[in-house]
UniProtKB/TrEMBL annotation:
Compartmental location: Secreted
Keyword RNA-binding: no
Protein name: Trefoil factor 2
Annotated P-type domain residues: 28-73, 79-122
PROSITE patterns: P_TREFOIL_1, P_TREFOIL_2
Record's GO cellular component terms: extracellular space
Amino acid sequence: MDLRVICALSAILVVALSSVAEGKTLPTRCQCKLAPRERRNCGYPGISAAACKKAGCCFNASVPGVPWCFAPKPKRVRKVCPNDSYARINCGFPGITAKDCERRGCCFRAHPAGVPWCFYHRTVEEGC
C-alpha cells in the first residue's frame, strides 16, 4: 500500500476513534464511590483528571498506591411501570390480555380508557 494511503487511513481512524470517545457519558458521583482497594485501573500513568473523565472514568488522586483513574461502578437501574397514564408507550394491541401483555415483559393496567393498557416499563436510576 502507498504511504499516502496509509497516512490518510490512519488520520481517518484517529478522527473516528476520538469522536467515539467523546460520546462517553460522565460517571455519576455514586458510580465513583468505591473503596480504594476495589478500584480497577482505567487510564495510563500520569493521566490527567480531564483526560480520565473524558474517557468515561472516575478520578481521585487522594489515596496513594492505588489507581487514580478507575472504572466506575455500573449504574443501578430498575424497571417501573409509569404512573402517568399519558406517558405510556404501547406494547400490545387492542384486546390483549393481562397474561399476554406480561408474557411480553410489559406492564398492564386496564384503566383509564383512551390510553394503552399494555405498555412498556420505564428504566429509572436508583440512588447510591
